[in-house]
Amino acid sequence: MQKETPAELRQRIRAGQHTGHTSGYCAGYVQCNVAILPKAWANEFLQFCQLNPKPCPIVAMASSPGATKIPSIAPDFDIRTDVPRYRLWENGRLDKEVTDISSVWRDDLVTFLLGCSFSFEEALLADGLEIRNITEGVNVPMYDTNMTCQPAGRLHGNMVVSMRPFKPADAIRMIQICSRFPSVHGSPVHFGNPEDIGISNINKPDYGDAVSIRAGEVPVFTACGVTPQAAIMAAKPEFCITHSPGCMVVTDMSNSKLAIL
Amino acid sequence: MQKETPAELRQRIRAGQHTGHTSGYCAGYVQCNVAILPKAWANEFLQFCQLNPKPCPIVAMASSPGATKIPSIAPDFDIRTDVPRYRLWENGRLDKEVTDISSVWRDDLVTFLLGCSFSFEEALLADGLEIRNITEGVNVPMYDTNMTCQPAGRLHGNMVVSMRPFKPADAIRMIQICSRFPSVHGSPVHFGNPEDIGISNINKPDYGDAVSIRAGEVPVFTACGVTPQAAIMAAKPEFCITHSPGCMVVTDMSNSKLAIL
Questions:
Q1: Does a structural domain hold residue A1?
Q2: Chain A nearest-CA residue for B260
Q3: Same domain, A132 and A165
Q4: What is the pLDDT of residues B98-128, one digit of tens each?
Q5: NCBIfam families annotated for this entry (chains A, B) (predicted)?
Q6: Could you tell me the residue range of the domain that residue A240 belongs to?
Q7: Nearest to residue B185, comparing CAs of B79, B45, B30, B43?
């Protein structure tokens, strides 16, 4: 069977034929988190991302309010139709999930696409490292921390981190590999004792699923794209749109192009 | 006062005016460990270094047995006079320390210069990291481990490691910086639990001095240039020469030139 290209998958998404998650689809290509905000919030969000690049790495953004195309990630991309499943939020509360936002699109909406851990996980697997959440077939465990983000206007909050356990020698290799990918969260922010960063129970993640930590392994913590979403929800904009977790924008950019060296 | 150049320091060493350690001299320039072996051992040593590049990183070697010049590290360098203090070994036992080996030089001796942690410590300090053994004014703690080196002929043994404690976020940065310097031991080989690599008491180093490990810090272990010396001594060549610990070859190469990126 011919492998599906990102353009082919986006075409199926646009036609309403693929409305689920994108994990494992179009291996080798960058997938992105989505945040769509009214213009009145966009500058603050951009500044928040600029100040907190590890949890909020911007891969691309729309060139102006209302713009629906982002040619740098794919020539045919349309933000209104090319995400499998969206979440509509009102005043910080989830209103509903939809598979097309054409009918709610507004000329003041600004689209941001943020890097996602799928890219660096692929690089780790290619190097022969085991990623526990993939081995165990669950979502990566994510935790609220006491590490404060730099605030920007109404946007503030603590960093959310994802956790993957490794033996120390593998953790050193993981740090080297992730350092090559600053636009998908970059090097880890902590390893070892979870309490050092305000995590009281490693077996009870705040988001995602718990994974096994085996004897001789240490938990390694990476800044997580849930951070900007949590900051937005806490600030309660009157309206905003995100992707539904796991249902990402699939771009034409290859993961290897994200490597800085 | 004008800063002394490597050429000026070597001139003083050659004249017998500097016979002590070289730590802190000629900041910014590469210093090297010395191993001088009879030709009958040289190929095995070269192979041992090739198989174990982290503990045994060759910066330069003499072009042939008996050669006393190594122009690639300094045009005027002479191995017989330019090390502040040498150790002469017979059958694996220390015979004596001298400050000039002209009178014992032989046409079958092959000189190897190996990278030294001074280079990466300078890069760490330049980045604002604290190095505990420097802060506490003692030699770095070094430990025998259970990590086996790849054997080469008569040369075999376990890896010796040095240890520097860091907070996890600083350890991540230290891993990034040291990864740029493969010719001075490169990235660490372990962090965290010392028993994982066969170290039973972190407060009793096998070489060097103990340092404080503060709350929230983890010990980070790097392959150490004592490894090849220990392998040589265990193999008991009838004759060999090393530098006296801390009394290194000072080269004209800048530390920054060792960075691979």
A1: no
A2: A261
A3: yes
A4: 999 999 999 999 999 999 999 999 999 999 9
A5: PRK05463.1 (NF003969)
A6: 6-116+236-258
A7: B30
Whether B38 and B104 map to the same domain: the answer is yes
Q: Which of B175, B192, B196 sits opposite A175 (nearest CB)?
A: B175
CA distance A33 to A134: 19
Statement to judge: residues B205 and B143 lie in one domain: yes
Q: Do A169 and B175 touch (CB under 8 A)?
A: no
Q: How many other C-beta atoms lie within 10 A of the C-beta of residue A201?
A: 11
What are the angstrom distances between the C-alpha of A52 and each of A23, A57, A229, B63, B130?
25, 8, 13, 52, 25
DSSP letter string, B94-153: EEEEES--GGG--TTEEEEEEE-THHHHHHHHHTT---HHHHTTSPPPEEEEEEEPPPBT
ipTM above 0.95, yes or no: no
Q: Does residue B132 sit in the same domain as residue B72?
A: no
Averaged pLDDT, B223-245 = 95
Q: Are residues B93 and B41 in the same domain?
A: yes
Please name which of A76, A50, A21, A35 lies closest in space to residue A241, comparing C-alpha atoms. A35
Q: B189 and B205 in one domain? A: yes
Residues B197 and B251 in one domain: no
In a mutagenesis test of the A interface, which of B163, B167, B172, B220 is the best target, namely the one with the most A β-carbons within 10 Å? B172
Helix (H) or strand (E) holding A33: strand A29-38
**Rounded Cα gap, residues A67 and A88, in angstroms:** 18
